[in-house]
Each structure stands twice: as structure tokens, then as C-alpha cells.
UniProtKB/TrEMBL annotation:
Entry EC no(s): 6.3.5.3
Organism encoding this protein: Galactobacter caseinivorans
One BP annotation, GO: 'de novo' IMP biosynthetic process
Keyword flag Nucleotide-binding: yes
SUPFAM superfamilies for this protein: PurS-like (SSF82697)
Annotated pathway: Purine metabolism; IMP biosynthesis via de novo pathway; 5-amino-1-(5-phospho-D-ribosyl)imidazole from N(2)-formyl-N(1)-(5-phospho-D-ribosyl)glycinamide: step 1/2
Alphabetical list of NCBIfam families matching this protein: phosphoribosylformylglycinamidine synthase subunit PurS, PRK05974.1
Name used for this protein in its record: Phosphoribosylformylglycinamidine synthase subunit PurS
Pfam families, A to Z: PurS
Record key words, sorted: ATP-binding, Cytoplasm, Ligase, Nucleotide-binding, Purine biosynthesis
A GO MF term: phosphoribosylformylglycinamidine synthase activity
Gene3D superfamilies linked to this entry: Phosphoribosylformylglycinamidine synthase subunit PurS (3.30.1280.10)
Subcellular localization, as worded in the UniProt entry: Cytoplasm
Length: 85
């Protein structure tokens, strides 16, 4: 069954307290190579049958209007993942 994956991230100008907490914890756990962290969201939409351009357009519209808050977040990717691969 194919899936459409939607990735949403906070806009660059928006503070990300979860990302700041994570980046502060990384060195304490021995991960010293990372200078910053931004935490986002991932949605997986299952599709019965083939993913057509119409279904993909619906997913993009849902991402822009429901899955993200356009005031503080950007939809950074809408991709199709075929489980058969």
C-alpha cells in the first residue's frame, strides 16, 4: 500500500524550544558534532490503490491547510513512498 509522507518544520524565525532542549542534551550523551537541532513533524497518509496526481494534490492541500500551521510552520516535503520497493 503506497503512502504519502508529509514533513513539516517550524519556520526559521520561530523559536524551537524542543530543538534547543535536544541540542543541549546531545553533548551530555557524547554526541558533540551537532551545532543545532530543529524538531519537526512527519505525517504518513496511506492510500488505497495508486497515488495519482489528483491524490498527491489533495495531500499537498491537506498539508498546507490541516497538517501544518502556516503562520509558524513550513511544509518542507510531500513525497510518495511505495511499500513494494
Amino acid at each position: 500500500m503506497p503512502r504519502i509522507v508529509v514533513d513539516v518544520m517550524p519556520k526559521p524565525e520561530i523559536l524551537d524550544p524542543q530543538g534547543k532542549a535536544i541540542v543541549g542534551s546531545l553533548p551530555r550523551l557524547g554526541f558533540t558534532a551537532f551545532a543545532g537541532v530543529r524538531q519537526g513533524k512527519r505525517f504518513e497518509l496511506s492510500v488505497d490503490g495508486e497515488v495519482t496526481e489528483e491524490i498527491l494534490a489533495q495531500a499537498r492541500e491537506a498539508a498546507a491547510t490541516l497538517l501544518s500551521n502556516p503562520v509558524i510552520e513550513d511544509v518542507v516535503a510531500v513525497t510518495v513512498v511505495d511499500d513494494a520497493e
